[in-house]
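S.,

Sequence below, as promised.
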Amino acid sequence: MAIPNVGKCFPTAEGFLAYLEGLQFGSWRPRFVTMHHTGAPDLATWRGWQTRAKPVSDEQWLKNLAAYYGNPPLGWRAGPHFFFTPNNFCVLSPPTARGVHAVSFNATSWGLECVGDFDREKFDGAVRDKYVEGLACLHIATGLQLAPFSKGVRGMHFHRDDPKTTKTCPGKGVDKAALVKLVQAKMTAMTGGDHPAEQITPVPVVKNRVGTVNSPDGLNVRASASAKAPLVEELKNGAAVTITGEAMNGETKWFAVDGGFVSARYVTLN
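The prediction came back faster than expected:
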């Protein structure tokens, strides 16, 4: 039985970013991105698919992947969330639910597979630039942090950061520090150094109220009432918060707390 397959492929960053910014998260939300390489197919194999009499489109490949992950011997309930190819930014498993891609990070991160075997193939040129652009979209749309890195908590992760694997994924040819710099530069170029303006409307609160964090994965405190705002700190599930104000960002309510803002949907008022 095939796993759920979103099956969308976006050739441009504009289309991919618009899709990501339209996501509506429920109880699960990624804390960071975990990057992989496919290994098989490598770039040479993928390019060979494009020159067949009947090319294997990226959309068809996603269907094949959905069957591969869902049927025996794997029998998984989901797979990685995204696949990047030299042509497209592709979405396999629903990005609003946890996927299957790295044992230690499944519960907390998006899984991203990049076509290539970067133990053998070079991570450079147009392929690298395409993947950098896609990574920038993932972080712009959600406000996820690229750095500083804290294993299992925040920052860009590689599969090889997982203590339960011996793999070199996403390949010995991919340097994390260099990649983070490239993605940060691309994010600046794509946003002009800032995120697009949002309609944030303050709503005054007559007196302080007390609430409790109701989120098993914890709750991010951000510098402003936006999921794209810088992360200030993370509150643990069950932590008490004093609410000093409110703000509406579109249709989403935020509570002002000590040090910043938190999403109101994850706070239970006492």
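The longest helix spans residues 125-142.

Coffee later?
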